[in-house]
């Protein structure tokens, strides 16, 4: 049996019309009629009956409609699996933010490349809302963002765990010795911000604004390294992911201020299009990230218990 007959059958069932199905499929109406007749002969059952000016499925047709969906889905899956080898030699384009590209993704990328050396991996940096838009438009196969949790009708977001944000300053900064800080304590401080549109910049600006805290004219850099260097030289304070400054904090060149706020929380998130087919290699990368999340959560849970 020609599987195209099943596709034609589904279109006729969808539109309740041989004429409309023929238009959609680009066939002559006589061709559609012949294909349905061939199916009826194949299964020995009448699939459609007249209902006024339209047609509708018979009980046998309803049964075949359900099975045809399953059969065509299996055929699509088989085609995808059979073409996997060709896709394994392609390019995987990932959108992400600078801090995750530098301090979170490298071990996963290393393991992935060891297991799939024939795949070229491209990392494209950006800010979160642009990365989501890029995934939606197909510019990226997927993105790993650092943002508050949110939903989107076209995108799937997998929470990979919370990323700690900290306010940093030079070790000799007057606020570095304070045991506890509130937003109001930053009144008049010079801030060093990442570029506009960064999720956690938006958060700290909202917290400062809501608390009525004034700030000196801020500096803005697109580079996380530039922000850290400016903080080290006492040019201001900054809100950054802890993973990005862990080494400097350990060496004592940067101090973490004792400040926390419930409205300043971000999460690592894997973002991909709901309708995008994911080849085996890409699913493997997803597995690496989610397995890494499970391991990290387990360690964090153990540390908290201790």
Model description:
It is elongated, with a radius of gyration of 28 Å. The chain folds into two domains: 3-82, Orthogonal Bundle (Arc Repressor Mutant, subunit A), CATH 1.10.10; 90-306, D-Maltodextrin-Binding Protein, domain 2 (3-Layer(aba) Sandwich). Helix content is 47%, strand content 21%. Helix 1 packs across helix 2. The chain has twelve helices and twelve strands. With 306 residues, the chain is an alpha/beta fold. The protein has a five-stranded mixed β-sheet, with helices on both faces. A three-stranded antiparallel β-sheet has the order 10-7-11, with helices on both faces.
How would you sum up this structure in a few lines?
With 306 residues, the chain is α/β, with parallel strands linked by helices. It has 2 domains: 3-82, Winged helix-like DNA-binding domain superfamily/Winged helix DNA-binding domain (Arc Repressor Mutant, subunit A, Orthogonal Bundle); 90-306, D-Maltodextrin-Binding Protein, domain 2 (3-Layer(aba) Sandwich), CATH 3.40.190.
Could you name the key traits of this structure?
306 residues; Arc Repressor Mutant, subunit A; 2 domains; five-stranded mixed sheet; three-stranded antiparallel sheet; 21% strand; elongated
Regions with little confidence, pLDDT below 50 for 5+ residues = 295-306
Count of discrete domains: 2
Largest sheet: 5 strands, mixed
Helix content: 40-55%
Give the overall silhouette: elongated
Radius of gyration: 28 Å
What order do the SSEs take from the amino end to the carboxyl end, as H and E?
HHHEEHHEHHEHEEEEHEHEHEEH
Number of strands: 12
Separation of termini? 65 Å
Spatial order of the strands forming the largest sheet: 4-3-5-12-6
- By CATH, the topology of the largest domain is D-Maltodextrin-Binding Protein, domain 2
On the 0-100 scale, what is the average pLDDT? 89
Number of helices: 12
